Amino acid sequence: MYDPSGMERLLSSAKFWVPWLIRERGAKVAMTVALQSYQLLGALIAVDNAPVDATLKSDFAKYVQGMRKIEDARVMRQVEADGILKGYEENLSIRQFLLTNLVRRPDSTYLEFRIPIKVLAAALDHMGDFPFKDPDEARYDGPTLFIRGTKSRYVADDILPLIGRFFPRFELQDIESGHWVISEKPEQFRQAVVDFLQDKN
User: Fold this and answer.
1) Which long-range CB contacts under 8 A does 49-52 form with residues at least 24 apart?
2) For the whole model, what pTM was predicted?
3) Residue 4 has pLDDT above 80, yes or no
């Protein structure tokens, strides 16, 4: 599960108009903050995620296996990690995205993931949960953009009416990609965000 209180503290200290763009599992946190502390946001951009409980694709468990194997191998270079992860994901852009979380700590000679793999693996079953169930009890009336990958299943057409009840001013931008929209189609993604924010401030 996730705790949005840290993000709420950060946003409440901001002294400027805040558009919040968040991707992957963080989109659930962003939507939660928007619904419970709407005054903190100037706008919301959620990437390929919807305000519903969702079961994660089996790819996520597979990625965690690959990440665990990388840590077990005690790799020292990114290229070694990529070689291992290639056995779990063919798409280079997705591998590169996953490996952005691989870091070298000051007291270590090998690379490891920012979030401990045990913590990540234990959280998988609940990562798709969403705390709000009734759109009559919570609503964010600020400008909202949902960007979805057309080859992904996380923002299905039948969920759009529910999105409209939670986020009545939402706009939808489809990008021909899978779930990893930012990694797969970075320029189309950038343009969608720029177009949306152009007249919002």
Assistant:
1) 49/23, 49/24, 49/25, 49/154, 49/155, 50/146, 50/154, 50/155, 50/156, 50/159, 50/162, 50/163, 51/130, 51/132, 51/162, 51/163, 51/166, 51/167, 52/130, 52/159, 52/162
2) 0.69
3) no
